């Protein structure tokens, strides 16, 4: 790891926040994808069986 000197805390905090935000965005995208697939399947079933 490079020597960050007196800015080490700030840099590591920024990296930590970035990782958390990216993880949150990925989780939200996957959750939304599952929801949309479920809704699409329900709509297709209503269309074919309705």
Q: What fraction, in percent, of the residue positions are helical?
A: over 70%
Number of separate helices:
1
**Class from helix and strand fractions:** mainly alpha
Question: Can you write the helix and strand succession as a string?
Answer: H
Strand percentage lies at under 5%
Straight-line N-to-C gap: 62 Å
Oligomer state equals single chain
As residue ranges, the low-confidence spans are none
Strand element count:
0
Q: Report Rg.
A: 21 Å
What's the overall geometry? rod-shaped
Largest β sheet strand count, sense and barrel closure:
none
What is the arithmetic mean of pLDDT? 94
Care to describe what's here?
The protein has 50 residues and is mainly alpha-helical. 84% of the residues lie in helices and 0% in strands. The chain contains one helix and no strands. The model has no long low-confidence stretch (mean pLDDT 94).
């Amino acid at each position: 790891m490079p020597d960050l000197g007196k800015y080490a805390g700030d840099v590591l905090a920024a990296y930590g926040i970035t990782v958390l935000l990216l993880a949150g965005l990925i989780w939200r995208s996957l959750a939304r994808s599952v929801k949309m697939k479920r809704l699409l399947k329900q709509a297709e079933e209503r269309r074919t069986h309705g």
